[in-house]
Design goal:
With about 375 residues, the chain is of the alpha+beta class. The protein has 16 helices and twelve strands. Strands 3-2-1-4-7-6-5 form a seven-stranded mixed beta sheet, with helices on both faces. The protein starts with a helix and ends with a helix. About 45% of the residues are buried.
């Protein structure tokens, strides 16, 4: 590998990782490949803080063999076996690193550079009811659309089939893949080519957007010491709580119906950082006693139902609270909630939101690689 290639990969990783319009927290991943080796972002690491030595070197011959193997039908056993083979594909000396969960997808795309991100603007399309139809119209069939499916090996096989079909149909490989309820993959043989394709994607989607989320009028409290924050901290066994309200959130927390567009997960990143079960407490904000009583009852009922504590709690006419093991992770929960808010607003242009199917939400909540990513990010 030429020295400039890994430097280019580092630079483009930082470029998109530092831009919240594309990447939040530990989301997204990037890669460079030559004939023999794939250099891929490490799982749970930050693109904004990319360094050459943080990329994981993978043996492409061993990665290709994964696509030819037969794995168990049971999802848990299958993903365990695939993960073991992927770990075995690390180049000697890289055993202390863990490659991105989407390594196999990066290896599939026949381009030197691949950048995968989760822009709220694009996810307004991919997380919408009419996204597939709108994408076909907007991009004249130039993009590959992958219906919502479980990540890991199943997604890999689906993307491989779609890429093969696209190449056969058009006589050239597809360079842009939209993953429903997930994000976008962009490939090119230069970093400039990647940037140009992203520019076109964003500009094209913007032509259909009706409005953007009104995030002005923000009221926040770091450390959050009022009665509701204290009650949430007590219910969550002393976890950190942060509060946020802005003009868009004020509209969402008017009642349960208004909250619907953000009431369930839109993408895996929202689950990892903001949880899969946002809590909505239908209580009058001006009556502190009733609010606290309803909050406690709603919290206990949800934990009993889901087996998980919420990372996001919304109180009618008051605002939204992020809950985490640290103040930082409570803030991350709010960041990803706001990302969901922006996505939901963009989705209004494409028939409204389309949540992740419940079986896929359950898969993410129990998938070992996402638990690892959550641990690496410090959110569990």
């Amino acid at each position: 590998m030429e020295f400039t290639s890994i430097q280019d990969l580092t630079a483009i990783s930082r470029r998109y990782g530092a831009d919240p319009d594309y990447v939040i927290a530990g989301g997204g991943n990037t890669s460079f490949k030559d004939e023999d080796t794939l250099y891929i972002k490490g799982s749970g690491s930050s693109l904004a803080e990319a360094e050459p030595e943080r990329f994981v070197r993978m043996d492409r011959r061993l990665l290709s063999e994964i696509g030819e193997k037969t794995y168990p039908e049971d999802p848990g056993e299958r993903e365990k076996a695939v993960l073991a083979d992927m770990m075995a594909a690390r180049v000697k000396g890289e055993e202390h690193k863990r490659p991105s969960v989407e390594t196999l997808l990066h290896d599939l795309l026949p381009f030197a550079f691949v950048v995968h991100t989760h822009p709220a603007l694009v996810n307004g399309l991919t997380c919408s009811q009419e996204g597939e139809k709108a994408a076909a119209e907007l991009f004249n069939g130039e993009i590959i659309w992958i219906p919502s499916t479980n990540p890991g090996y199943v997604l890999f096989r689906q993307v491989k089939a779609a890429l093969d079909a696209y190449t056969k149909r058009r006589g050239r490989p597809g360079a842009v893949i939209f993953l429903q309820n997930h994000g976008v993959f962009v490939g090119a043989d230069t970093t400039g080519g990647v940037e140009e394709r992203y520019r076109r994607i964003m500009e094209t989607v913007k032509t259909r957007i009706r409005r953007t989320a009104d995030l002005s009028g923000e009221v926040s409290a770091q450390g959050c010491s009022d009665a509701v924050c204290q009650a949430l901290s007590n219910l969550a066994a002393g976890k950190a709580v942060r509060f946020l309200r802005n003009n868009e959130i004020a509209l969402l927390v008017r009642d349960r119906k208004s909250f619907f567009p953000v009431s369930a997960p839109l993408s895996p990143d929202h689950i990892v950082y903001a949880g899969s079960d946002p809590l909505f407490v239908d209580a009058p904000a001006e009556d502190a006693g009733e609010t606290l009583g309803r909050l406690e009852a709603a919290w206990k009922q949800q934990v009993e139902k889901t087996g998980r504590e919420p990372k996001i709690a919304a109180v009618r006419d008051l605002g939204v609270f992020g809950i985490g093991v640290t103040d930082k992770t409570a803030g991350l929960a709010l960041e990803l909630f706001i990302d969901a808010v922006k996505t939901a607003v963009y989705a209004e242009a494409f028939g409204g939101v389309r949540f992740m199917p419940p079986d896929q939400v359950d898969f993410i909540n129990t998938w070992e690689v996402e638990r690892y990513r959550s641990k690496a990010a410090g959110v569990t």
